[in-house]
Batch of 4 targets.
Target 1
Amino acid sequence: MNLPSKLVEAAVEQFASLPGIGKRTALRLVLHLLKQSKENVNAFSTTFIEMRNNIKYCKSCYNISDNDICEICSDHKRDHSIICVVEDVRDVMAIENTMQYRGVYHVLGGIISPMNGIGPNELNIESLITKAASGKVNEMIFALSATMEGDTTNFYIFKRIKDYNIKTSVIARGVAVGDDLEYTDEITLGRSILNRVPYENSFVR
């Protein structure tokens, strides 16, 4: 793509580096910004700089937050004895949008994937085990993607907490095998949370 300005070309490259945005879409976005006032463009860019510099991760569940403890974990109306274990913050958003869950979360920051060099030590698993050992948790819901890596992670955590007398459940397989939670429609995901089954029943026999 031949562009008349190196500045425009650099801006297009930055937009095109975002997921799902090709060069043509990036160019349209850049040309749109050029039509805006300098004040609007400065406000646009400042928003992202402030987000990146000031965003925090909840010290309890690792969800993104404006404060040290996120709104979900600081909400006394939530059931803190139920922890929904998810892969990343997008899954928290997806489940919250169903409005069917009133417990709290624990964001692992990924799933165990030896092929990609990701082991248990690279994830937020030890802090989850600490919660399990506290005696304050009654149930853990495994809400990881229905993939081999997700199932491996579920089983690893299950083995680590099996001696703590905690009910373990997994979301119902209304979520298709191989699907990511963030792409599942809210009704299906909500029903999967409500119709969760004991984790032991999910084993392939």
Target 2
Amino acid sequence: MTASSALLESAVDQLATLPGIGRRTAMRLALDLLRREPHDVARFTEAIRRMRDELRRCEVCCNVSDEPRCAICSDPRRDAGLICVVEDIRDVLAIEATRQYHGLYHVLGGVISPMEGIGPDDLNTAELLDRTANGAAREVVLALGGTLEGDTTAFYLNKRLADRNVLVTTIARGISVGANLDQADEVTLGRSIADRKPYEQSIKR
């Protein structure tokens, strides 16, 4: 699909770099933007620019945030003694949508994957260990996907947390083996959070 305008073609090329967006969809999006009022397009592009330039990492949980501390960590109604460990922001959004969890989070920024050269030091594991060093946390929930990499990461974290005075639990396996959390429906994920169990029990199969 070739456009009659190099400017339009360039916009389509950039939109097509987004995940799940093919060139046909990218063309529809570009033409939609072209039909919008200039101030609407300016507002759209400014929102993208500000997100890219001003978004930061929460100093507590490593989630994305507008401020040094994210809205979840700043909420006094959250249970600060309960920390849910997830792979990335998509998992935070998925769990929050269930309305079954009222603690804090810790975003690892990935999972251990030797095949891809990703080890514990490449993730936000040190920050998690720091958070559990002072005894403020009473429970750490390992809410990682049912993949080999997710299980490897959970096993590693459980070992590292063994000398902490903290209960390590894992979500119930309502999540299919090999699936990521953001692929689960809200009811299944909510039940998995509510029915979590000690991690050591989960590996005694």
Target 3
Amino acid sequence: MELVGFSILDRLYGLHSRYVNRVIECTRLFPAPFMPECHKGLLFYRGDLYDVIDVGILFSRKASAKEPPYRIILLKWELKKLAIIPDVVIGLVSLDDPSVKQEASRVNGQPIDLITPDSLWDQLLKLSYGPGKIL
């Protein structure tokens, strides 16, 4: 199984490569109002509009990328699109056994957490949006 590996706070994650459209460097994002802290803005790339998410904030509440240019992983699956900003994009990683369980997967001796775009999407849907409580 081919994964695109990336790290957040020295923890390794992998997404199945079939969901990854491209990895790009991006210097300009367009902010969107009333979005959660992890939502860094919108990106228009080759005719597609992506919500850009800092996965460091989404997973651990610490910002991944401090300043542009960002390395961004563009994801496409079903009819959804999402772009993520990790700390470091590792690149393609091969796992020998596609049936391997999440907690048992290792790359170069380091554990790797397998995630799916749907799991990212589900985490985003649980976040609060808007300006917060109005007094």
Target 4
Amino acid sequence: MKNNYSSRLLEEAIDEFSKLPGIGKKSALRLVLYLLKQDRKEVEQFGNTILRIKKEIIQCEKCHNISDTRLCPICSDPYRDQQLVCVVESIRDVISIENTQQYHGLYHVLGGIISPMDGIGPSDLTIHSLEERVRQEDIKEIILALSTTMEGDTTNFYIYKKLHQYPVKITTLARGVAIGDDLEYADEVTLGRSILNRTRFEDTFHTNQ
């Protein structure tokens, strides 16, 4: 059904907003009308900020987190534990773990998990650069903090097979995060405890049998 908007620009703006995840046509209309009520300077600032995040935000060259500089503030923070690296699927997971205030090491963002059904293999992720970090840096422990799904477990095992030859301790989150859950949706207390109570990855082989 075609909507009869009085303005072509209004319709185009609604179409663009409705492309955002979780935003339908009604929500898009509400957002556009809200912007129309704002001062021109505020709307210009909003638009400029959107353009700047696309133009200026880059990936940290070490951990692949988003950053405004070559190294993100976490990697360049001298007070973080440089020998501890938490491997996560996405930038959202970094934010979730940081919100717990229970973790003070570094991160490595894979950019996804192995999922043959979606055409995502190991070469599509940053696993190779993770192995390079373990090879070149003085890393003592790798925490595998991926979603507790079949794809997450598959990725965990693949990384373990790649890294177990190095003198590095490989651990995984305690199963406080329910099976099938994404870290993004775990509450901060549960996620924080899962980090603090992490276990050796090898020990999960016995519990899964």
